[in-house]
Write a structure and sequence with these properties.
Length: 206
C-alpha cells in the first residue's frame, strides 16, 4: 500500500485506508505524515520506542467518593527510563497483545495495546500512551479509533480500560465516551486500586 498523499488542505480531516485485515489511519500534521499501524516483528523492534517520552506531571487525581468522582490534590510525576522503554517494547513483541502504534516515519510516537480475548464482550486496553511532544494532535483519538475497529471486528460491544486516575487522563477517556464500569474486572481493580475502571460502548459513536 502506498502512503496516503498529504491532506494538509484539510488539516482537521483523517484519511482511513484498509490494508489487509488491519486499518491504517494516515493524516498530515503540517506535512509530517503520521500513520497508525498494526505492529509485528516486521515493523517493530525492541529499540522502536527509543526516544518515546512517557513523561506526565500530575497535580490532581480523581477519587470515587460517595459514588461521585471528586478531584483531589495528589502531585506526582510518571516517566519511563530506557530500561522501561525496552521492557515495554518486549511486551509488544511478546505476542500476547494486539498493538497499534502511531509512526512518524520509523519513529513511534504513540501506542495502544489490546488483550485479544474478550471479557464479557469487552476488549480490554492494556496500555495507551502518546509521547509527550505529540499530544493534543489527535493521535490518541486515532489510536482509539483503531482499537474500536479492532474490537468491532472481534465482536466486542465495548472497550474497557483500567485508567490512571490523573485529571488529564480521565478527562481524555471521558471525551472518548468512557464512563465508570458497572461491572469492573476484579483482577484489574485489585492490581491497581487507585485506577478507575471504565468502559465505552462501541456499538454507538463514542
Amino acid at each position: 500500500m502506498k502512503p496516503a498523499k498529504c491532506i494538509c488542505q484539510k488539516p482537521e480531516s483523517m484519511l482511513k485506508l484498509r490494508s489487509g485485515p488491519a486499518f491504517s489511519y494516515t493524516y498530515c500534521e503540517r506535512h509530517n505524515v503520521l500513520e497508525i499501524k498494526l505492529v509485528d516483528r516486521n515493523n517493530f523492534t525492541r529499540d522502536s520506542l527509543k526516544g518515546f517520552r512517557r513523561y506526565q506531571e500530575v497535580k490532581n487525581v480523581y477519587r470515587l467518593q460517595n459514588g461521585k468522582l471528586t478531584l483531589v490534590p495528589s502531585p506526582f510525576t510518571e516517566d519511563w527510563d530506557d530500561a522501561r522503554l525496552i521492557e515495554k517494547a518486549e511486551e509488544i513483541l511478546s505476542g500476547r497483545y494486539v498493538t497499534y502504534c502511531a509512526f512518524e516515519g520509523n519513529h513511534v510516537v504513540g501506542e495502544i495495546m489490546l488483550i485479544p480475548g474478550l471479557n464479557k464482550g469487552r476488549l480490554i486496553i492494556d496500555s495507551f500512551h502518546v509521547s509527550r511532544d505529540y499530544r493534543r494532535r489527535g493521535i490518541g483519538r486515532a489510536l482509539f479509533e483503531a482499537a474500536r475497529q479492532e474490537a468491532l471486528d472481534r465482536g466486542a460491544h465495548a472497550l474497557y480500560a483500567s485508567c490512571c486516575s490523573s485529571e488529564e487522563t480521565i478527562n481524555f477517556y471521558t471525551t472518548l465516551g468512557f464512563r465508570l464500569s458497572s461491572d469492573p474486572v476484579p483482577s484489574l481493580a485489585e492490581a491497581e486500586p487507585y485506577d478507575l475502571q471504565m468502559e465505552c460502548n462501541i456499538k454507538r459513536v463514542c
